[in-house]
Task: structure prediction
Amino acid sequence: MLTMGDESMSAFFTNELILDILEKYKLIWSLDHSLAALGWDSETYMPEEGVEERSISVSQLTLLKQKLLTDPSFISLVDKASEEKDLNDYEKGVVRVLERSIKVYRQLPPKLVEELTKTAEEAKVVWRRSRNENSFQTFQPYLEKIVSLSREAANHLGYKEHPYDALLDLYEEGLTSRDVDNVFNITVPATKAVLSRLLEEKLFPQKHPLEEASYDVEAMKKVNRVVTEKFGYDPKRFRMDISTHPFTIGLGIRDVRITTRYEGKDFKASLFSTIHEYGHALYELQNNEAFISTPLASGVSLGIHESQSRFWENVIGRSRSFCEAVFPILKDNLNFISQFTWEDVYYYFNTVKPSLIRVDSDEVSYNFHILLRYRLEKGLISGEINVSDLPELWCNAMDEYLGIRPKTYSEGVLQDIHWSQASFGYFPTYTLGNIISAQIRHYIIKELPDFNERVLNMDFTSIKEWLKEKVHRWGSTYTPKMLLEKMFGEELNPEHFTAYLREKYLNKKI
Amino acid sequence: MLTMGDESMSAFFTNELILDILEKYKLIWSLDHSLAALGWDSETYMPEEGVEERSISVSQLTLLKQKLLTDPSFISLVDKASEEKDLNDYEKGVVRVLERSIKVYRQLPPKLVEELTKTAEEAKVVWRRSRNENSFQTFQPYLEKIVSLSREAANHLGYKEHPYDALLDLYEEGLTSRDVDNVFNITVPATKAVLSRLLEEKLFPQKHPLEEASYDVEAMKKVNRVVTEKFGYDPKRFRMDISTHPFTIGLGIRDVRITTRYEGKDFKASLFSTIHEYGHALYELQNNEAFISTPLASGVSLGIHESQSRFWENVIGRSRSFCEAVFPILKDNLNFISQFTWEDVYYYFNTVKPSLIRVDSDEVSYNFHILLRYRLEKGLISGEINVSDLPELWCNAMDEYLGIRPKTYSEGVLQDIHWSQASFGYFPTYTLGNIISAQIRHYIIKELPDFNERVLNMDFTSIKEWLKEKVHRWGSTYTPKMLLEKMFGEELNPEHFTAYLREKYLNKKI
Result:
């Protein structure tokens, strides 16, 4: 049989019912593996016109996966297992993850799922056109339908306090609007204070000459390769390709792939998308090999995943130590760097400028973009906000939070793809990732007081080991909230993030 | 819904039962599509250690495919459809292909399939070791078991005259040892005559200085790209990658991929593997788009497929016209070519030298290698030959056919992977491909008398159109034998091949 590294599956799973479930789950996992491979291929190497045959295959496999998950005999196995008294944490994790997967199919009427899927498919096309034509009116009826179907879905899924909580939970297990409110109540005033002082006192530049530098794509590929090599990965389990929208995909614990992009200007865009995806990839790569082909085989939630990517991208990648350490690599490969110092590079990596566009935003202003979307989504789902009012509300909120107003729908309410895909509840996981990455920084430095020196020496072994021990190796064993408690002995705490912002942007110590 | 080009599915399939079958078949096709994508990925870009997770997924999907094909309700649909009176040729083709797929699972006891699969898996590993260590004794017990299981399989599958026919039919629908005997009865004496005269009179060289020329891999990639572009393909539906063993894989009619290899020496190895795979790819690419996701969606048999690859590789690629036409491309990219003429290149492409190794053989001696394997396989399956006698019989046959004797098992009986994979009955399809490629040449020249001139001008449009019309667009609609009748108005006729050999190698006219 398969050799699963040092740790064999049987050391983690012993309950007969669970073993039976895992055996049956192998096919579901295999469909996920195949869908991941097909997804990767579609974005990287698939010939353009293969798309229609690909979509037949993807929809057939997706339907089959749903059918297997909702097969009465499979559900009854999971139900039975959930009543077992002596399950260990891993076995409980298996039951929990499966119950969550099943729940969606069990509680949402197939007709509603079908309508949501169909509407979202049309809406995505219309959204793209609307954005290009700067016409909110074209998109409005689709968005209205999506909001009303999402509200209906929330009611079917159930919630304790706010219907939006049902949707939040789809993306971040257990997350409620009370949690998100708490995060913003603490971070918003503190971040506002940091932002206005740093802009006023010009502590960080808003623009940088390096943004205009054109780079050679092959040279930049080498930079990205060398940097990820310094971070460290096993080339037998990892690869890096190119796609329009960078992403990470785990085909398995031993086969994780990232993509990045090369636009030939503003090299930090390419570098930081690589570092960001590296963070995601490491989470998957450092999972426990005994979880191969089980429901615990990947990262537990979007928020925790984003904390890993943001930790590498921001906490490490945008730090003074890293800038000093990466400088020789940049200088060796990008000829225009020779006119600059590593501190120039640091300020280039850390320009702070309120932007209309979320994906172009810096660490300081980023979360305001999420706050804006969060408030609008919550109001839409509760019915307090009408779709027709969104453009106006969007502009007012941008003005209130960042003091800028979009002049077009395309740079305002139409900028993100998420709503067209009916992904209400997704945005807050981005802020969660930022918050948790700072919380990780706080605790990792307690245990590795020479953290900055390690980064400066490009010595990431202990840092990766810490992340593996605290986060990665658990896969989906614990809920995000349980994992935070286990990791830090405290729950989600936004104070670490605000302290990080002050320390970096006002005290200039990071 | 999907737009399927100009020809919609409904123009070809109207019977209600068939439409029902095609709807259900979509999932089976999707599994095939996914398995093809996974197979391509495994050979090209998969990180090395992804192999174990990949093998879980591939075996789960393969088992599921088998389960769907043998699902009683699916079988009964196919059985019912086979009794329908008014099916058109396409609909009959659907029933025929499905009956063939089902038959294997229906007639072979699952225990036997399992044992064959398990033994073959072990045998492949042992074969590789035995070949490296030049030890037939190590491999012998595995081969004995495979032969005995294959004989058992033949009995379950059934046959009219010879048990080997049951195995031949697995690879080439309807092919019998009577057919193969007929091919060799005609080709062997004629080929022997050609071979001895051409060697005696030194009409073609046995060696060529160009074999020693080292090439730049990037330059050779360009040659392969330019040559396939001259042949013509739609880059939106085709791609070319690198793998150790070149292959063609159709993920769909609109997504066909080939691989080639670059060993840095003997550039014809890289060029002709590319041309060979192009021939396979064109067959899949020029299939009827209305067959997408149906059982007719790919080439009908190994023999017909090989005729397409050999037609491009040998009939076109090794002809005087092509050598003259490709010469400027070679000269532009490979600097060592400048010391040679296009006729030098022609003789380099057409060295004729009896070789111990099948895959290194030329057009003239190649079929003797198949004859040898065919006779041994037939004797093994009938029980007239014992595995222990193979090495001796192999050496004697090589001596008899080509006048050379292997000195090691590795260059003799252990050279091919096929037997370790239990692929008895596969080899004859190679010779079939050679025979049919010459038969195609005979008939295409009748309709395109300026065939050579077209090749000389790199004008392949009418040639590809002819192949599409006669062969490609039918997919698996007709059996190989029916297709030959339809194509040529005659059955498999080896005389065209012997005529081709004489014309090329004695009269020097091709």
The mean pLDDT of chain B is 96.
